[in-house]
Amino acid sequence: MPRLALSLQGMKVLFTHGYFICDDPKEQQIMKPYPPLGLLYLSAWLDKHGVENEVFDTTFSTKNDLKGHLLRSRPRIVALYANLMTKLNVLEIAAFIRREESLRNTLIVMGGPDVTHNAADYLAHGADLIVIGEGEQTMLEICLSAGNEGARDSEHFSHIPGIAFLQPGGLLFKTPPREKLRDIDALPFPNRHKIDLHHYLDAWKKAHGHSAVSISTQRGCPYTCRWCSTAVYGQSYRRRSPEKVVDEIVFLKEQYNFDLIWFVDDVFTVSHKWLGEFRDALQSRNVSVQFECITRADRLNAEVIGILKECGCFRVWIGAESGSQRIIDAMDRRVDVQQVGAMIRTAGAAGIQTGTFIMLGYPGETEQDIRDTVQHLKAANPDLFTITVAYPIKGTGLYEEVQSVTVSGLPWAESTDRDLDFRRTYPRKYYDYAVRWTVNAVHWHKARHSGRGYSLHSFRLAAKTAVARAGMFWWRFSKMM
Q: N or C: less crowded end of the chain, CB within 10 Å?
């Protein structure tokens, strides 16, 4: 047994994340769940260094199941992953641990994208330690320092980089930042065997007729979009070697029966050199896969799209966010809207399905900008597109921009950044109708150009488009009243 394991014999570390699909009707309809890769990486890192741990995957479980497991196992450390979707559940779990006498010595560690810029609030609501940034090395050092004596004295951990805690008197204390992992090839594969991955594969198969697994090939994003959070991995670019990624694909194919891969990276084609080497590694080992990924139009061209096709890409998501160059520039997207449309069409012509993302309600956006977005979607003609109404995430440039005009009627512990709103060009209700108008106008355009212009479906889309347009007019007019 490794020396480290001997020193931590009896240490109980439990990772969990607080996402319960049974409590989320929208996600039940979508039914495209993926396992918590971040926690599975942390678990694998602790395994690699001889620290025993377990993962309680809440996705297909219930809050009562998790609470019962906590009471039975009484872990020394509970590590909770928090993001916008899981924040409220994570706070509820922490409050439960704090109420239970049998868990009074349990150390609550929280990490994830939502904690970095809300450390003091999470600490005030049950957390003992906040992990800021990448968690592998930090979590290992926390385990080494925690020992088995049951102490929860946060200052006992003050030598560890990349954490935050409350000092006596309630003052927030942050240690120096943790240096990012330079060689992420040193990371073991995520501990998928510590969860039941078949739950995910079966859910996908039942809902969509095919199953999917997720893989991460990179950490960080070098781009500067003002609405995007880089709270965990920072504005960096670190990539696993193509050979390591293919190793993981081969491992997954040996262990599981799946149909598709979702690469979770922010910009899959950021390095054309890496992509070519990935193609070569797949071909040299005779590995055939089908996958979808996200990228940017400025990191695409006809040759790159051809390489994606050779690698097995069946769908590529190309970020646009707006059809108005003025708004794209305000977002600091650093991309040309005409190039976005051209790359969507080029990928489609190459036989790759295309998707794009749209954001309405960005500061300063006018109705003309929204019209430009609708025209962009009609001209680019992606197979799929998603629309969100912009909201400010703490720590982003957008948040700083609108902080002085941000409104929220709910206390921090009862809301998330998704509940924040700010004074926009038009009333908030206007954008609900703008989303409906955009969706229906584009689908009506598609129907008319597919030969179904006089079908019942087309007439319904036309009616929905008109109703949404009337709603936009009403709420725009109401601002002037």
A: C
